[in-house]
């Protein structure tokens, strides 16, 4: 039996258009759009009608950088695939791309199988995987080809975390050369981890143990240097490069220069770098530990460069790097030694609302909001136009968004499985009202109506955003 839903009277916003239109959904897909009030729209019949008068009708968000259940520093990210995807839905995100992890000495396949097992049957929304490559060798390189064929088309490497995820320049170059051949996209955590470890050791020897020193040792210049080096290695390999969680003005400059040279270099930033700063890391009584992530929060003056990069398309995507650790029992592991604080912030539920606040504040336009949060991440990672837009043939991943609702972000009201909010007390305008995932209601007028297991694994094509 086919099922039909029609969304009426809303303002449909995509990356390219804003139009007062009705949307017809059948069997989980968008089948038609028609201007509200026209004979075509009026002729539609459906089992279910959603009235979006005074609301935005937008594509479900695509968060291309999450870490559910990630092992880190002797503990695990506190959100499971079940709790994390449910929280994502509450925040208007309908697709996540998480990171499967290859451990040193193990194959890519083992890592991917392990993450498939964690997610299978537990997700409220659709999901896909990138692959973290921690051990580049001849077998790994062959496996990269196989994974691309299967729809795992992006590979993350780390210039940071020596002894854990770190790859040296030779390993990075080999993986980039392979991706140049197989169509994969290398994602780079660009920080000079070898130099940072020296600065960490020196800071601790001086008795500088508080969370704020996490930001001071992970210097913006070492993010810029690594970004520059990654760009040059990608240029030698003839491969595209996607730099994750860009936080520093100097790193934006490196990406902008590469793009001006016509290189396939892309940059992602995250809400924490746009809305938080080293002021948060310096909060007293170890509260600053809540804001420890890598790359770290920067002084406020870096924010203007990030917003400018988003407006000029030198930065293309805003993802969350959602990797929550509870303050009690997890962040506290680093009392007396900031280097032992698990790195990561919660945010998968907050991204769409914070970026709408950026529209309200005049940083970006409404269409740019949808572009950086929905359409471009879908294109960058081979999910478009199935995801990231509202158009005939697209999955009916649709959010009814109330642009005038006001809310206060708080641990008391969020749905992420973590005991604090990084944005506690922040007032924002705009709120998700209803969320459809492949036409099925996951959030219905601020009530959770989804279920674990509705979300399905989604293979991806290669990057659709190359110059």
What attributes characterize this protein structure?
single chain, 467 residues, alpha/beta, 8-stranded mixed β-sheet, 8-stranded parallel β-sheet, 18 strands, globular
What order do the helices and strands come in, and which of them pair?
Elements: E1 4-13, E2 18-26, E3 29-35, H1 39-42, E4 48-51, E5 56-59, E6 61-66, E7 71-72, E8 75-76, H2 81-90, E9 93-101, H3 108-119, E10 126-132, H4 138-150, E11 154-158, H5 169-182, E12 185-189, H6 193-205, H7 212-217, H8 220-237, E13 241-243, H9 249-260, E14 265-269, H10 271-275, H11 278-281, H12 302-312, E15 317-318, H13 351-360, H14 366-380, E16 398-408, E17 427-437, E18 440-443
Parallel strand pairs: 1-4, 1-5, 6-9, 9-10, 10-11, 11-12, 12-13, 13-14, 14-15
Antiparallel strand pairs: 1-2, 2-3, 5-16, 7-8, 16-17, 17-18
Helix pairs in contact: 4-5, 5-8, 8-9
Count helical runs. 14
Task: Detail the poorly predicted runs.
Answer: none
Number of strands: 18
- In round numbers, the mean pLDDT is 98
Question: Using only CA atoms, what is the Rg?
Answer: 21 Å
What would you call the shape? globular
Tell me the span between the first and last alpha carbons. Answer: 43 Å
Kindly estimate the percentage of residues that lie in beta strands according to DSSP.
15-25%
How much helix is in the residues?
25-40%
Query: Main beta sheet, described?
Result: 8 strands, mixed
Q: What class would the helix/strand composition place it in?
A: alpha/beta
Fold and architecture overview:
By secondary structure, the protein is α/β, with parallel strands linked by helices. It contains 14 helices and 18 strands. The strands form 3 sheets. Strands 1, 2, 3, 4, 5, 16, 17 and 18 form an 8-stranded mixed sheet that branches. Strands 6-9-10-11-12-13-14-15 form an 8-stranded parallel sheet. A two-stranded antiparallel sheet has the order 7-8. Helix 3 links the parallel strand 9 (93-101) and strand 10. Helix 5 (169-182) crosses helix 8 (220-237) and helix 8 runs parallel beside helix 9 (249-260). It is globular and about 70 Å long. The mean pLDDT is 98.
């Amino acid at each position: 039996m086919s099922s039909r839903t029609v969304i009426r009277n809303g303002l449909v916003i995509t990356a390219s258009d804003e139009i007062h239109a009705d949307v017809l959904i059948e069997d989980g897909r968008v089948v038609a759009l028609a201007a509200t009030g026209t004979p075509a729209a009026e002729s539609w019949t459906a089992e279910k009608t959603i009235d979006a008068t005074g609301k935005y009708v937008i594509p479900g968000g695509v968060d291309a950088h999450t870490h559910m259940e990630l092992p880190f520093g002797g503990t695990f990210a506190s959100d499971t695939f079940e709790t994390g995807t449910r929280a994502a839905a509450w925040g208007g995100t309908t697709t996540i791309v998480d990171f499967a992890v290859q451990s040193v000495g193990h194959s890519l396949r083992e890592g991917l199988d392990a993450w498939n097992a964690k997610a299978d049957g537990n997700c409220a929304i659709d999901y896909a995987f990138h692959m973290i490559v921690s051990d580049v060798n001849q077998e790994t390189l062959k496996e990269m080809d196989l994974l691309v064929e299967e729809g795992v088309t992006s590979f993350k490497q780390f210039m940071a975390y020596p002894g854990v995820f770190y790859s040296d320049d030779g390993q990075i170059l080999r993986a980039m050369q392979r991706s140049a051949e197989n169509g994969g996209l290398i994602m780079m955590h660009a920080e000079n981890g070898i130099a940072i470890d020296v600065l960490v050791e020196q800071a601790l020897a001086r008795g500088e143990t508080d969370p704020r020193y996490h930001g001071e040792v992970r210097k913006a210049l070492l993010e810029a240097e690594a970004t520059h080096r990654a760009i040059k290695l990608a240029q030698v390999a003839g491969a595209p490069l996607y730099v994750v969680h860009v936080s520093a003005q100097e790193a934006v400059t490196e990406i902008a220069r590469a793009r001006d040279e016509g290189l396939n270099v892309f940059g992602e930033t995250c809400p924490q770098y746009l809305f938080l700063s080293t002021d948060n890391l310096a909060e007293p009584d170890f509260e600053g530990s809540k804001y420890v992530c890598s790359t770290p929060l920067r002084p406020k003056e870096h924010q203007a460069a990030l917003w400018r990069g988003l407006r000029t398309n030198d930065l293309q995507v805003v993802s969350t790097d959602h990797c929550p650790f509870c303050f009690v029992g997890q962040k506290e592991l680093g009392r007396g030694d900031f280097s032992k604080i698990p790195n990561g912030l919660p945010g998968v539920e907050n991204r769409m609302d914070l970026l709408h606040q950026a529209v309200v504040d005049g940083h970006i336009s409404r269409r740019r909001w949808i572009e950086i949060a929905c359409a471009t991440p879908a294109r960058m990672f081979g999910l478009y136009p199935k995801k990231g837009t509202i158009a005939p043939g697209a999955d009916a991943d649709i959010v009814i968004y109330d642009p005038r609702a006001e809310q206060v972000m708080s641990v008391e009201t969020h749905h992420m499985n973590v005991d604090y909010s990084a944005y506690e007390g922040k007032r924002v305008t705009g709120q998700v009202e209803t969320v459809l995932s492949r036409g099925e209601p996951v959030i219905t007028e601020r009530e959770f109506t989804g279920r674990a297991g509705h979300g399905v694994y989604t293979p991806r094509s290669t990057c659709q955003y190359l110059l």
